[in-house]
Amino acid sequence: MKLLEEKPARPQLNLLKDIFMNSTKAKGQKLERRHNRVRAKISGTALRPRLSVKRSLNYVSLQLIDDVSGKTLVAATSRGIKVGKDNPFKGKTAEAYEAGLDLAKKALDKKITAVCFDRGGSAYHGRVKAVADAARAGGLQF
Fold first, then answer.
1. Checking DSSP bridges between strand 116-118 and strand 50-55, what pairing results, if any?
2. CB 87 within 8 A of CB 122
3. H-state helical runs in the chain
4. Which CATH number fits domain 42-137: 3.50.50.60, 3.40.50.1110, 3.30.420.100, 3.30.465.10?
5. Residue ranges of the chain with pLDDT lower than 50?
6. Full-model pTM
7. Distance between CA 48 and CA 21 in Å, rounded?
């Protein structure tokens, strides 16, 4: 009986929680490293701002950033966007496409025609690619 008191058994649930938390942390660190590699090569100016894409689980946030002055010139998000009938995608990708069109429209209103694309460490497919395609369709040049 004394052996059981000295060394209590660790519940399996806590072990699984630790494994999950470590993998989530590692995933975030890998994303950050990839983003830093991209940002080492890409920088935005007032004439050619950086189109930054932040992909969350449910939404996509887009910004046109002037890195010289450190200001956001135009921003758009897929939150609350209605998907049009002529959209070639479905679901969250369709919302990302509409957000890209919205960003392009706002950028053209501010006389911004050329941007450099920052995928934010995410792979260039799915919602990130849909944003790029929409921005091009909306009149922005990469």
1. parallel
2. no
3. 2-6, 12-41, 91-109, 127-137
4. 3.30.420.100
5. none
6. 0.80
7. 39
